[in-house]
Structure formats: structure tokens, C-alpha cells
Predict the structure.
Amino acid sequence: MDFKKEVVELINSQVDLPEEKINALIERPKNPKMGDYAFPCFVLAKTMHKNPAEIAQNIASELSSDDFASIKAVGPYVNFAIDHEKLISSTLKDVLAAGEHYGDQEIGHGNVPIDMSSPNIAKPMSMGHLRSTVIGNSIAKTMEKVGYKPIKINYLGDYGTQFGKLIAAYKHWGNEEDVKKDPIMNLFHYYVRFHKEAEENPELEQEGREWFKKLEEGDPEAVELWKWFREVSLADFNRIYKELGVEFDSYNGEAFFNDKMQPVIEELKDKGLLHESRGAQVVDMGEDANPAIIVKSDGTSIYLTRDLAAAEWRMKEYDFAKMLYVVGNEQAQHFVELKTVLKKMGYDWSDDIHHIPFGLITQGGKKLSTRKGNVVFLDQVLKDAVSLAKKQIEEKNPDLADQDQVAHDVGVGAVIFHDLKNDRLDSFDFDLEEVVRFEGDTGPYVQYTNARAQSVLRKAAAMGKKPADDNFNLDDEWAFAVAKDLADFPRIIARSADKFEPSVIAKFALGLSKKFNKYYANVKILTDDDQLASRLALVEATSIVLTESLRLLGVNAPKEM
């Protein structure tokens, strides 16, 4: 039951304001004793020529509803207090009937390609790749929950000038045997060495450029080395994606669009958008803005050229409703250029392209950089997280069955949850000890709360008791606080989908966990009385919603910890 919608309709029956405006004005009182919803009357003072407190009094005196325990004026507000038993009963009924589908909505439909993760070939996946991967994965799950069909694209960094540098580095210092033994780490070390030595020997940079030109021209040796680097890298990436529980629908990387760029360049010429500037081919971005470079002065393409080709190809292939690019905030200007050039080309669907930016992960306050070798490898972080989780599980529950699987779910889940509980645009410092704690605002805390709920249900089953599926009779304040959050879950999902913001769901899961743990501490759930079946229903509903919240974040929910 949508109590807020009823508040909107009740207020609308008394005032001359559109429902959307009323909906936007409604507040939640900070003190629960003041009610559950409040409508501020300041906005009506001007047109009604009365003071807001008098308006509130007049409105409240005209309203009544069986779904609210009270509707009264408090100063300039009309406050609505929900009937506890009604909200608890209607919410439990909704959650238990829908199960894991509670919160499913039809907000939109159609394909939504999501360009995400996109690591560079021949470099180990670092903590820097974590954000795009897990944010993109969670957004995909949420978009599906609200009716869209997500298409997860791993737009691999498998082309570009860095491959010229890598080939040059391999020719100088590499050998096949070492690469076969430990492909990624050795290729990575060659790359780091290239940059260090290029500081002393600038001629290396020119060598790198020459090898990239050879690769673009189809030189057999360059192409052969490039294919090999790509193959060994992908095998390693897929091992890490499996750990994270992330799958992709497409691995079409930058190289896939090599033969699709020239038609775009020709199209820009035909539409009179391309002109020469300092030897490069550019498109004007308007006054006070630098032009967008399409072809560099040495004749090579740049990222923008390729992204234009990719955008056109994806529109033809997927006929998308929206297309999302989950890429760091530092690339914001690139996406402004991409959308502007597509718009100038006459493609109105460019309005459906959204850049989903995010902040940085730092360690000890310092930015992580592959080039300088100052990098934290994702593989190692996940291993360390799992072993920290295992250590805590051994201390807390040494007899737990399937310890390794639970430790994996908790350790990896902790890393994912920590990333997603932060607002997408915020940068944050990563401290593994904090991340894998079972207390505080962590993933393991939410998982532990769900496991606690499951434990209560197992104990009840052993007593021969099961949750009610109707005729609920709870009205205490602890149950009400939990049920209010459960009732809010569909709105939380819609907001997360609208803002492309997984932290909305993560913060909700933390809040629900805290309220359930207060309920657990203050109410003897398993007392055998006439409310037992209703209390068990509340426990089961909480577990359903916590499990689904975690799933939308890409985190598993073990039933025992």
C-alpha cells in the first residue's frame, strides 16, 4: 500500500496544487513521534493570504482516513501518522506474496547498453578497475529490476598508442618464455620499465609511436604480438570477473571498431563538420571551447573517433533506450565532446547517452597509477579480503559448514559493498581491515543481519512454527520501524535506477539492518504466543528484502555465518 500517495491525494483534495508539486513538498518528520509524513503549508500563504499555521489547521480539520491513526496540524505543518498495524500488515502481505520479485517495476523498457570495466590489455586489473566494474554491474541489475534489458559491454582497452610502447618494450627486454610463465605481470613490468627509461631516453617514445603505426597498417609481427597480448590478458581478467560474480554480454573492445572509424570520418566530411586545424582534423565545439580532435596531425585516430564509431554501431545493433558509460569523472570532457559531435551529426539519440562518472579510490591518500608502478592489484585485494573474512568466521563460528564459500562471499562482498556504499562521485580511501569488519557500516554487517534472520527462522522451524501469510497482528514501534523501511524498498529501487546510484540501495540495506537488529534486541521473537507467526513473517520479509538489496549490489547473502 502506498501511504505517501494517499497523503498526496488527501492534500490535493483541499488545495489548488498539482500532485507532482505536493509529492515533492512532502517531508518525513525527524522525530517519529510527530508522525510519518508532513506537508508544509508555507507555499500556500501567498495565494491564500493566511499564515501557514492557520492554513495547516484548516486543512487538517477537513481530512480523515482509516489508514492514518491521526491527521493533525503541528505549527505550519499537516502531520500524518500511519496506523501501525495497517502499515505492517499491508507491507508484510506485499513482501511475502512477491518474494524476490518485491520491488519489481515497469518504469521503462528497451535495451540499455552499459559500457563498463574496460581494463587495458597486458596490464593487471587494479583497484582502479573495481569501481567501473561493480558500479556498472549493480546499475545493470537495477535497470533490469525496473523493466529494462541491460547489455553489459566490456569495452576492452585493446588498441592505442600504449600497444606501440608495449611492443617496443617487449622487443627490448622481453622474451617468450617469461611471458608464458606469468603473462600479465611480465608484460606489466615491461610497460612500467618503458616509461621509466623513456624519461632518460625520449627516443623510446618515438619507437613506441612507430610500432603503433605498424600495428595500424597491419604489419604481421606487430599484429601477432598484439593478438597474443590480448589473449593472455583476457584469460586473466575472466578469472577475476568470476571472483566478483560479473559476466558480460560483449567483449567488443577498441580494436573491434578499427574498420568502422573511416566511415565516420567520411560522414563528418560529407556533413561539412570536419576541418583542418594545425595539421589535425577537428570538429568545432562552439565558442570558448577547444575543437574536438578526430584525426591527429600524424594521421592516427584518437579515442573520440573510435567512440563515435562505437556509438553509431551500438545504436544500429541494439536500438537502445539509453546508453550508459560508467567511466571515471576525469573523462567528463570526453563525453561532452562525444555527445556534442553526435548531435551535430543529426543524431538526436545522443540525448539518451549518459556518462556515469565516479570518484577515485586512494590508498593512504594517494592516487593509484599504473604508469609509475604505484598500483594495488585487485586480485591480491580480493585474496586478502577472503582470508580476513575466514579468520573472523573461524573465531566467531568455528563449526560453520562450507567455511570457504562463506568466507569468499563475505570477503569479496565486503570489497564490493564498500565501494558501492559511497556516493558514486565521492573519492574514498581504501583500508581493507575496515572494509571486512562485521560491525559498522560494512557489507559483512548486512550479511550477518540476514544470516541472523535466517537463524531465527531455522530455530522456529525446529519448534514446528512458521511465518504467517495473512492476518498479521503486530503494532509495536520496533516492528513498525522495520516495516516502514520494507514498505520503502520499491521507492528506493526506483530512485537508484533514476539516479544511476547504487549507494541509495547500499545505504538503505544498512538502515534496514540497524532497525532489524534493534527489533531483535528489544523483542523476544520466538516466544510462543498469538503474535509469533506474525513476528516470523516480519523476520522472513526482512531477509527477503536484505537478500534482494545485496543481490542488486552484486553481493551474495549466505544463510549462515
Q: What stands out?
A: The CA atoms of residues 383 and 411 lie 8 Å apart. The two ends are 34 Å apart (CA to CA). The mean pLDDT is 94.
